[in-house]
Amino acid sequence: MPGDSKLPRAAAGALPARPLLLALPFLSLLLLLYVYSSSTTSPSTATIAITSTAAAVPLTPSPPSPHIRMRAAARYGTYEDYLRHQLNKTLDPRLRRVWATRDWHRKVSTFARLFASLQREGLLTNASRALCVGARLGQEVAALRQVGVANAVGIDLAPAPPLVVRGDFHAQPFGDETFDFEFSNVFDHALYPDRFAAEIERTLRPGGVAVIHVAVHRRGDKYSANDLLDVEGLVGLFRRCDVVRVSKVDAFGLDTEVILRKKR
Which ranges carry the Methyltransferase type domain (predicted)? Predict the structure, then answer.
């Protein structure tokens, strides 16, 4: 989740136009993050307490499932190898420029419409403590704040302050029953799907809502760790939740939305 090339030194007194142009995407990202952080109430990292920033996760296979095909475990000698592989995507400079510029407003707008719809259904409120799991640069978090959910934060292997803190979805850095609402669209990246689900259930309060976007019968990219063959493969992992709804969506390559509510 490439090596840097040396930029030519600008002539004395000349404006270094090319380096400035290359820096524009990063300046855009900083500006966007500043706008979202200053135009909305900050998520209270004080009320959403981070209990740790790292956890030891052994390299052990998930229980086999006829609904989920694991396709990545054989590539890794250690769990750290898996994390490094995922970070190759998350930290790819080209992808981060796209996420921060061309994709930013499109994704924030789409997620904001999704979250506003959930608010109308009573599945999300402005008072909800919300977590976005695998949030990359934090478009989902920005969208939550845009619709009024101020106490929202994301986790990813690489932090993107102020929207996203460092965290591993196999071992979330939060206490039990911290959140009222959790959203994720990175289930296919889970090396341990059972732990991915268990951590959402652990950190979700009773009565809290989890919304998961997945692709069914569709291979992900080279960073995906599993293929979901049937939505039952996902639903069956959430043993402490009831299904609210399973529906079709068109969400950035993902086709199915699963909404779950943790049992009281």
Answer: 131-212
102-146 pLDDT per residue, tens: 899 999 999 999 999 999 999 999 999 999 999 999 999 999 999
The string of pLDDT tens digits covering residues 224-235 is 999 999 999 999
Contact predicate 154/103, CB 8 Å? no
DSSP string, the chain: --PPPPPPPPPTTS--HHHHHHHHHHHHHHHHHHHHHHHSPPP-TTTS-B--S-------PPPPBTTEEE-SGGG-SSHHHHHHHHHHHHT-HHHHHHHHTTTHHHHHHHHHHHHHHHHHTTS--TT--EEEET-TTTHHHHHHHHTT--SEEEEESS-BTTTEEE-BTTB-SB-TT-EEEEEES-GGG-SSHHHHHHHHHHHEEEEEEEEEEE-BS----TT--EEESSHHHHHTT-TTEEEEEEEEEEETTEEEEEEEEE--
Residues 133, 1: Cα–Cα separation, whole Å = 14
Of 59, 136, 129, give the one whose Cα is nearest residue 92.
136
Give residue for tokens 């952080």: 37
Burial of 244 (0-12, 13-18, 19+ CB in 10 A): middle
Q: Is residue 224 a contact partner of residue 188, using CB atoms and an 8 Å limit?
A: yes
Would you state the pLDDT for residue 26?
47
**Confidence (pTM):** 0.81
Which pLDDT score, from 0 to 100, does residue 29 have? Answer: 45
Classify residue 30 as exposed, middle or buried by CB count within 10 Å of its CB (0-12, 13-18, 19+): exposed
pLDDT of residue 82: 92
